[in-house]
Specification:
Length: 278
């Protein structure tokens, strides 16, 4: 068995400093680079990872909101995770990611909130059913991503509806994508990777307008609908991802997304607000 760490685990490597409880340091990963900064899903996973590694953690994640104030620059960064309220069954966290500026100041790049909970066995039911889909092996895998977008190479993506437009002709169409996806290098699913996978969908405005306009996520919220046992059952299998835009208005739009296991379990849902430019 290989002892080489998975690229995602290397990207999420955090070191708990002795400055204060919940203070971590890390370094950006070239494996998950996205033009001007890290892939946003990796940044979200880092924020969540700081909570998961906190010594005062209660339970497992149920909600994660990440606000991208600025792109992380290449190199070292600091994360501070703080438990601001702990109740009997829920725990509320704030997370900040900062980097040193060239002039000696501290730059705030990311803020986040996390809610964890000590779940208990109760009545459970899914009202949203998994869409019909072909078998993953029956769908062609997309080729390696363009130069400067290394993170795409870290995922095996098999879209069967709503792929990247073949022609950027400005035609108006639907904004829904359906895709099978998993890590390109096999890795068992966990909460951090599920958070990252919730952000693998390209901006819906590109599909809706068939126009390659500048766009970037401003804020994303992911809800987790599983526990550790359900994640273990998924293992290294494919996830079915569905994403669609909802409202495009004056430079911003929101897009919803769902991630399902091959067996039809709804694992996570997300919603994000995205900036776009003409």
């Amino acid at each position: 068995m290989s002892t080489t760490p998975h690229p995602f685990d290397k990207a999420l490597a955090l070191h708990h400093s002795d400055i204060r409880v919940g203070h971590f340091t890390g370094t950006t990963s070239p494996d998950y680079w996205n033009m001007v900064g890290p892939f946003g899903g990796t940044t979200a996973a880092l924020a969540l990872q700081s909570v998961l590694q906190h010594p005062d953690l209660l339970g497992t994640p149920i909600a994660l909101t990440v606000n991208y104030a600025a792109a992380l620059g290449e190199g070292a960064f600091d994360i501070q995770a703080t438990a601001v309220r702990t109740n009997r069954s829920t725990q509320h966290w704030t997370v900040t990611i900062t980097q040193p500026g060239a002039d000696g100041t501290t730059n705030m790049t990311t803020t986040a909130t996390v809610v964890t909970a000590a779940r208990r066995d109760t009545w459970s039911q899914a009202d949203l059913t998994m869409p019909e889909a072909p078998k993953p092996e029956a769908v062609d895998r997309i080729s390696i991503g363009p130069s400067g977008v290394a993170w795409l190479d870290q995922y095996e993506m098999r879209p069967f509806s709503g792929g990247i437009p073949s022609k950027w002709d400005g035609s108006l169409q639907h904004s829904e994508t359906r895709i099978w996806v998993r890590d390109a290098q096999a890795r068992p699913l966990d909460f951090a990777s599920l958070a990252a996978l919730s952000d693998v969908f390209y901006p819906r405005v590109w599909l809706r307008r068939a126009k390659h306009v500048p766009a970037g996520t401003v804020s994303i919220t992911t809800y987790f609908h599983v526990g550790a046992a359900e994640l273990a059952e998924v293992g290294t299998g494919y996830l079915l991802g569905c994403a669609a835009g909802q409202q495009f208005f004056n430079g911003f739009f929101d897009q919803k997304a769902q991630l399902w296991s091959e067996k039809g379990a709804l694992l996570a849902t997300s919603n994000q607000i995205v900036y776009y430019k003409e």
